[in-house]
RNA sequence: GGUCUCGUAGUGUAGUGGUUAACACGCCAGUCUGUCACACUGGAAAUCGCGAGUUCAAUCCUCGUCGGGACCGCCA
């Protein structure tokens, strides 16, 4: 028999009545009724109520002396609760343990800095500083359990589909592209550094070249970039996967099966079935004003630039004009529209004109500047029904696109148009291979390792800005879970692509020497993707902040308040790794 | 790096140019044999983040500073 317990706190029921048992856990709550004392003992599995026999005054005194959240072990007889005292909220609600022995295993010696129960709100830095107490609280505790189950489900499903989990190095070489690296100084090689991988990108491509057909890994990734509510500073996990002799559709098929089944396993929300909609990048930017659209939002953006070219509206002249038509809101109070205008201007819009749709005409502040023909065109272009309201965004094209997206989301939120019990996945496809950077020079718009659609031929013949890549994102409810791509496995095409982006052959040879070299020895065509595990868990757990689904998260300034990282190291340690501090 | 925002008992909040700084949870003591967010009675607990300024008087107004958070930049 285990020294501390025969059963956990979630499993005893009326089948155990009259058994002598031991449970161990934390003193969750305490109710002293004078004659009778109730102790709630909580462990990872549940809560069991313990009663203290009235006649045993020593035990009563002992029980009264235990501070909440102390660790205890209790021996006693399982007894049925009186019929009218059954607690349906507890799995163990039919029984209680009549204590015969109480052992205090570890006492709480100070006042608790945060309430474990009842679960009141606590400021976040304090929660992180006392994460071991915070994690006892039901909500976060359950999130961590959920995360564990999701991760093991992912492993099982990937393995069942024939993928091999292969781990790749954590100490590797700094890579020139992308995010800032975390550097690790080398002791043996003065002045040289390892880097923590931003992703196992090159390793997984090398694995494909090594003849492994389907690879995956729950991969830790490290990027020295600032945090966001949905983005951990420093480190995060990806479901990294890659397939050899595979096309975009092969990746989509695997991910659609995985994501649909995974989300179905852990959520009761409605999920769209495969195939997920494939939306070309340019279409997404126009219709939704973003490359990560929330398809729960029924509002769509239309381009009406051409209609306004013929109209005499100064403010819209020579601008890109986009319209969002929201149904059944013409009876909203004036304040609703004023607030929307305020929101729009706060986000950088020059204004937000709006028009009510009436019987075959438009009504509102700018209606008099639009011809009857123009009004008809607007109504038919947006397919507007009576009592709709059209919102207009007019600006330089890029800004109009972005603003329309922001306003589309805000309108849907304020009008409560977004269903809370639905997951809608989609693919954004056909990203451009190149774009102009701020200095007006050509650069890779996403991943330099992506295969251009059409291969070497289009690189040689087409206007670079018109070349599309086999580059795709998977998006769910407006959250980008991942980018992926069919990789460029041909050395010559790689060199050409880099040349267009202004890099010499030497750059490819030196900076990506492992891949570039390997690809000369029979690299298979391959493709992959790497959805963020943290974001998947956030979506399923319905948590808006990433710290709620990570056991020991850093704060937004990339500090671990529990372990005090980063911290100072000794002069000796620095000397060994040949580092002099610049102060 | 920038913008916004928050900082008041252990915790979460309220509040005011002059107060005994309020409420809830927690804590301590007491009453109660059936509670399970027990109830009831009483109590302890706050240099109102820190510094400077304005003022007869600052927790409150101003400036600075420190700390937390959100967003922008950044995240191939």
Task: Quickly give the CATH architecture of the domain at 297-418.
Answer: 2-Layer Sandwich
Helix segment tally: 17
What is the overall silhouette?
A: globular
> What do the pLDDT scores average to?
93
Poorly predicted segments: none
Write the layout of secondary structure elements.
Elements: E1 20-32, E2 37-43, E3 46-52, H1 57-64, E4 71-80, E5 95-106, H2 124-129, H3 131-134, H4 138-160, E6 164-165, E7 183-185, E8 193-195, H5 201-209, E9 214-223, E10 234-244, H6 248-266, E11 270-271, E12 278-280, H7 281-288, E13 301-303, H8 305-309, E14 320-326, H9 334-346, E15 353-358, E16 361-363, H10 372-382, E17 389-395, H11 397-414, E18 422-423, E19 425-429, E20 434-436, E21 442-444, H12 455-461, E22 471-476, E23 479-486, H13 491-500, H14 505-511, H15 513-518, E24 526-529, H16 533-541, H17 571-576
Parallel strand pairs: 3-5, 6-9, 11-18, 12-19
Antiparallel strand pairs: 1-2, 1-4, 2-3, 4-5, 7-8, 9-10, 10-24, 13-14, 14-17, 15-16, 15-17, 19-22, 20-21, 22-23, 23-24
Helix pairs in contact: 4-16, 7-11, 12-13
This protein binds one RNA strand of 76 nucleotides through residues 29, 31-38, 40, 47, 49, 51, 54, 67-68, 81-82, 84-85, 87, 89-90, 93, 110-115, 117-118, 120-126, 175-180, 198-199, 201, 223-226, 228-229, 231, 444-449, 483, 555-557.
